[in-house]
Amino acid sequence: MAVLDDFDLFMENIYKYTNIDLTKYKRPQMQRRLTALRDKQGFKDFKSYFEALQKDQNLFHEFLDRMTINVSEFFRNPNRWEVVEKRLIPDVLKKQKKIKVWSAACSTGEEPYTLVMILNQFLPFHDIKVMASDIDEGAITRAKKGVYHQRSLQFVPPAYVNKYFKPLDNQQYAISDEVKKCVTFKRHNLLEEPFDNDFDLIVCRNVIIYFTEQAKDLLYTKFSNALKPGGVLFVGSTEQIFNPQSFRFTTYDTFFYQRV
Ligand SMILES: C[S@@+](CC[C@H](N)C(=O)[O-])C[C@H]1O[C@@H](n2cnc3c(N)ncnc32)[C@H](O)[C@@H]1O
């Protein structure tokens, strides 16, 4: 049997403690990030770092923060969101009146709120429901609060800024309550928990890149099963699927995959 090193044991302990399986994330990046954090806190190995994490909530939350990477922004890669607005939603609404949407790994909420703003070009608020989930409870709390620095609004069309945001002090903006009410947030671990199904659109961007090839393949299969036939998976701009047919997908547009 292979001998487990200090980091292997740490991953095993974290899994038992949190149900987060670090072995499903690409190891070099994850180990580098967590080693830097551990060193910053003055622990000489992962064994003593794990012991401390269990006793100190601040350390534990800092660890969760570092392993999750919550960077996001509204309309991230704007020309891809044009595909959603100009092609995808009109295609769906030709066939039906409502659209079932999930923002998976939604971080601090910019992505599901982007979806609501776009959907509102076609539907009244009371017909818009977006499900949004992330593994990180802290990110979800911030998403529900809905307050953002101007920086994350750089790609929001000016007319939308006026319509859907309220300026606050210190270059902060609050998303409107009407937009907020359309989104249901929940904590959900993509790698461990079952998925809802019958989605018309699943947006899962800039998280799959962190997963091992094996974890990626499992996820694509789960996403494919969670979509309706004709439903679409929208991935990040570094996350092209090279063998879409293996997951019953055809390419709908660049970074969009349609369930056959
Ligand atoms: C870089 S953010 C992407 C946010 C947004 N989708 C975007 O593209 O702007 C990655 C998010 O993935 C979440 N995440 C990491 N592992 C996850 C898992 N196993 N299940 C669900 N979410 C996860 C992190 O908490 C983080 O909020």
UniProtKB/TrEMBL annotation:
Check the record and name the SMART domains matching this protein: MeTrc (SM00138)
Q: What is its EC number?
A: 2.1.1.80
Q: Which residues form the CheR-type methyltransferase domain?
A: 1-260
Alphabetical list of Pfam families matching this protein: CheR, CheR_N
Keyword annotations from UniProtKB, A to Z:
Methyltransferase, S-adenosyl-L-methionine, Transferase
The answer to whether the entry has keyword Cell cycle is: no
The UniProt entry, under InterPro entries, shows: Bact_Chemotaxis_MeTrfase, CheR_C, CheR_MeTrfase, CheR_N, CheR_N_sf, SAM-dependent_MTases_sf
Classify the source by domain of life.
Bacteria
Q: Which reaction does it catalyse?
A: L-glutamyl-[protein] + S-adenosyl-L-methionine = [protein]-L-glutamate 5-O-methyl ester + S-adenosyl-L-homocysteine
Alphabetical list of PANTHER family matching this protein = CHEMOTAXIS PROTEIN METHYLTRANSFERASE
UniProt-recorded name of the protein: protein-glutamate O-methyltransferase
